Amino acid sequence: MADLPPDAPITFERHGGFAGVVLRTTFTPSELTEPEAEAIAAQQEAARPHHRAPQPDRFEYHLDLPTGRIVLHEEDLPEPLRPLVTRLLERARQR
Amino acid sequence: MMPQRCSFVPPPLLEEIARRGDDAQRDAALRTLALDQTVRTARLHNLGLASPMIDALRSVVGPKDHPNRTIRDAENTRDLDGPIVRREGGKASGDEAADEAYDGLGATWELFARVYDRNSIDDHGLPLEGVVHFERDYDNAFWDGQRMVFGDGDGTLFNRFTIAVEVIGHELAHGVTGAELGLEYLGEAGAINESISDVFGSLVKQYLNNETAEKADWLIGAGLLRPSVHGVALRSMKAPGTAYDDPVLGKDPQPAHMDDFVKTTADNGGVHINSGIPNRAFYLAATALGGHAWERAGQIWYDTLLDPKLRPGTKFVSFARSTVRSATRRFGADSDEAGAVEGAWDQVGVKI
Description:
Chain A is an alpha+beta fold and 95 residues long. Chain A has helices at residues 34-45, 82-92, and strands at 10-16, 23-27, 59-65, 68-73. Chain A has one domain (10-92).
């Protein structure tokens, strides 16, 4: 994340699940804790994200950064990113 | 891709133990296989085991006159092995979600057993396990290859996921599809997988309420959306794309016709989106035939689930052809049933 300005817009989307509805919000690198920023950076650097056969009705998370898209499946979500996903979902549900 | 399954002992090793082990080892291996993924059990049969072993396997699987349900409470964590709050035949727990899960699994078992003569997910009495109160504010339900897991909803957009019996039927049907077809959860095959679950989920509700095709609401997830959300359900099999239109959720993205097929990489290639097309095909076939949808249209779709010619990566056209073959085999080539199914696919733009 070091290569991104602190105010660079990042779009977060949740797809799939039984409902199949999309929840969406945005955030910036300045909102991330250090472990969260490191976890996202690690995902960016991964040549190809580990992807197992998906289980039916699980969620899929998209992070759209200026440098590209990261796709994370619920079953493989890195532990340090769980608090971030929780915060972003709370924001995405706001009317 | 096959549905993911987790096990400490690899299935081939269990099968070897079942074939070559002593009596105690064989018994233990058979019990593990019987309690585990149903595909393994089917594979065991395919290996041509001697009949005493088949009998031994049958002796450890469930009875055919009632389901064998267990409901656990994840206590708002991700622990799937939380305390058991209700067992088969036990009294109501008093926990709304647990009792709804218990009843919904029972209603789904009843449909498959009484109408299609299928004994549970694997047709060998596989015990049914449900887990409620998974995580916190979890607005989802899923089948993990071994059990059905339900969240409480977030309280803002979604109610608890056990509130609608078709959700429970949908998840159990994923188990049946996994056991019989092993459909990929991707693209058109994934959309068929999703549609099969919606079809049998809706049929569970219709069977429970003794509704005809004309009277049924054909909604998936009715009651799941909180009152503040602009919508009636998550999906409409009758009119895909009309279930909700809300400032936060957006508009129901399901197409009703192949002309509007959505090409996307999200949601495993739009499995919850393009399922609208086969969903509407089933609705059209069922309403063309009239009466109870589970009797003829449902039987045809169930027969299709057992079609050995269908491949894990099957497309809409192959699946549609299989439904017509199923209708022809059971009711005749010139039957109303075969005509209704063929006409239904034509109306949604799937050319057989």
